[in-house]
Amino acid sequence: MTFCVIYNPVSPHFSQEILDYLVKKMTEKGFTLTQVLKSEYSGHVIELIKEQDPLCDYIVTMGGDGTVNEAVRAFNEIEQHCVYAHIATGTTNDMANNYNMARHDPKKGIDKLVAEGVETYTDSILVNGEPVCYVSAFCYVAPIPFLVSTKLKKKLGHAAYVVSALPILMKKPERVTITYTANGETKTVSTCLALITTSKGMGGISLYRNADQNDGKFEVFFLKKLSPKLVAEIFPKYLTDNINLADYLKYAEAFSTDKLDIRFDGTLPKHAVDNDGNKAEFELTPENNELHYTIGKKIRVFMPPK
Q1: According to DSSP H, which parts of 90-179 are helical?
Q2: Domain 130-295 carries which CATH code?
C-alpha cells in the first residue's frame, strides 16, 4: 500500500522531526512512501489532493483544521480513489477531536493512527454549494476564528481565541430573525448564534460530546436567549472546555436534519458566515439573503475508531 504526505509548513506544531516520525511509523507498518509535498499557499492542498488522489492508496495531511477543510473541498469535487488521513499540527485542531486523535501532540496522534486506524466514512456539509468539513456558524462568537490575527494565534495558540472572545462575550449579542425549513416544518425565530455542525465541537471547545460524523445528518443549534447571567455561567466552562450544548436546550432551538434552508428576515449578520473557521466565500446581501445546507459527499477516511 502506498501513501503520500501533504504538509502545511506554517502550522504551529509542524516540524521536520514530526514529518520524519510519520514517515518512519507508516513505513514500519508496511506502507510505501510515494511523495512528500509542501502546501505553499491557500488552496494548494486542494490542488495537490486532486493531483495525488489517483496515484496512491492513502493521502495523509499534516496541518490544522484549514488543511482538513481544503482536503474535504477537494474530495467533494472529485471521485475519491484514495483513503484520507490527517495528523493535527494546527492551533485548535477541532478535526483531531472528530478523528479521535491527540489534539496537541502530533507524535501521539501518529502512534494512535498507525496502531489503531481503520477505514470508515465521515459526512461533509454543503453551504450554498461550498463544502464544509465540520461546522458552519453565524452571529455572536461565530466569526472569532477568522477575526483572530495569525500573529496572535502563533504567539498564544488556543488562548488567542479566549482573549479575542472575552470582549465579544461582554457585549450585547446581535440578533437576527430567520425563517428556516427543516424536517418538513417551517418556523421563524430570533437567534443570536447559529451552529450547523457534524462536529464534536468548534474553536477548541467540545460541544456535542457524542456527535456521529457518519450518520448522514448535521446538528442545528439556534440560540434564542442570552442573558448576562448565562454568559457568566458559560464563560468559565468555555475556559475549561466543559460546555455541553445539551445543558442549554431550554434557551435554544435544536434538532438534527439532512437539509436546512434559512432566510434572513431583515437584518443580516454583521460578519460573514464562518465555515470551518474561515470566512465563507459567498456573501450575504439583502438580495441574496438565504443559506442552503445539505449533506455533501461522504469522505473515506483512515482514523482510530475511538
Answers
A1: 94-98, 106-116, 144-147, 150-156, 159-169
A2: 2.60.200.40
